[in-house]
Task: structure prediction
Amino acid sequence: MRPSREARAGRREPPFGLLLLGLAMAAVLAGTLGLVSERISATAVEGFLSLLDSDPETAWAILTRVRLPRVMLGAMVGASLGLSGAALQGWLRNPLAEPGLIGASGAAALGAVLAFYFGLADWVQFALPVGGVLGALAGLGLLLAMVGRDPSVLTVILAGVAVSAFSGALTQLAINLAPSPYSTLEVITWLMGSLANRSFDHVLLALPLTLVGWGLLAGTGRALDALTVGEDAARSMGVSLTLLRWRIVLGVGLSVGSAVSVTGVVGFVGLVIPHLLRPLVGYVPSRLLPVSALGGAAIVLLADVAVRYLSPGQELKLGVVTALVGAPFFLLLLMDVRRKTQ
Amino acid sequence: MRMMGIAALALAFMISAGTARADAPRRVVSMNLCTDQLVLMLADRERIASVSYLAARPEDSLMAGATNGLVLNHGQIEEVLPLKPELAIAGLYTTRFTAAILRDLGIPVLDLPPARTFDDVRANIRKVAEALGVPARGEDMITAMNARIDRLRGRVARAARPRALIYRAGGYTLGRQTFAGELLALAGYENAAADYGITEWGAVPVEAVLQLKPDALIVGIYRDNAPSLARDVTKHPALAVHAPRVIEVQTRHWSCGTPAALDIVARLIAARGQS
Result:
């Protein structure tokens, strides 16, 4: 149920439409920056804007075949992470729920690595996102089995740690047994998360399952709103909690699983973004969903521009940067949660 | 490819002038892919006690055919000691623990640095041949290698120098100051990595490859069948924009500095002739 208009009028929050528009514009702006941003590291390589004058043909090829898929993928992954974070936090009524922290991302990475090293991905390309999705779903399933009917803040996080640790161990086992020593280095770098050197093949690979996931999550708004007043009240309002659980688990599994399978693990976006935006939508879960999707896209695109500026040449990995920013945020949040529960 | 290894072996035996000195070590253990191949080329077969397991893998080694019947080791001290080696040969940066213990036990250990230039290759051949007690064979091998280098150099002396970029899984390239770079230069190519400021080793993003516009992309393939995520980069569709010639090369040919690496130079020269 939405808080009454009076209750919300007390806080200064921007009109919902304006907020959506602003975030969409931020995402488009970040995407445009991602398309044209300069990245000069060496003698014979020019920045994009000067290349536009001196060699428009190459500049065009770079724009359409390298930068555009990179930006599209960044927007997709960011939106998936923001949306999933918002949905999970609303459903578990837990401010610390996030695809990475509850182990879904790690399990998705395991699924993708397995699909790869058993050669399934050579056989059918689609095996990669399917592997990622199955991994994420398995991770979420394990989490739910451990949490049971007690989704308290700490239980969920502890179960998430267990799922992360287990899938991490299995991923390391897969790396350990990988057929080629180079794959060790390769998987480790891939796990750091990056949008570099991706093509439209990757976009097309991840898009279908991602869209299905988004569709499932987008439809949970009303039920999440009802849930804010408690499970029994929600049930009395005709919300099927079983249906909600399936929608969210499948939605997160599909969108996060396919995102991880093409970009590796980009952590903490699903934690930070819904948190920063929640006050701006008056703590209404249904409004937080679209806003977090746009915010996630904007922040991942910005971070991807940042990695190119921060260290040209030896490009920082996107996942490393989001974790460096996100982990301290997580600690602050944890202290906040502790203060409130004491 | 196996045939090439056997050919290299046959060549090694042909140039095997002179017999081993009386005090030459009788049980030689090599623990590094690169030293393995030199030992297999230079030593009397009955004096080789063991080579590393990598030497027997056709996807890693040019001498895999020559390892039949030899004990294969993984560089573990438990495997090496029972062989009672009179000489152990190791790479300067590999199996350090085993090499240190062998040395403590008074077993002579030869550490061989990886070769980055043909001068390094000559020095390594000399060291191994000397340690094996067959210095004349080493000199013969060097003479044969020098003659082949001169012939290859003659083939490209007056030809134009196309620009090539070595491109490997993950988008990594090798610059002038690597053994692969040395082979590329001998085959008469300019190394385009230099234009990106890389002289040794580094990553080149796809968009930089588009700007560098190399005439040829030399794609290093480690194992044909081993799936590898990073291989995707070498197949990025944007790389076809300027339609560089793609020359696929098995990385085992340049991973070790031995005379057999010259086979790859001949291939690279032949590939440029097709343009």
Summary: Chain A has one domain: 48-341. Residues 62 and 68 of chain A are 8 Å apart (CA to CA). The interface with chain B takes residues 41-46, 51, 55, 58, 61-62, 65-67, 116-117, 119, 121-122, 179-180, 182-183, 185-187, 189-190, 196-197, 199-201, 313-315 of chain A (CB under 8 Å).
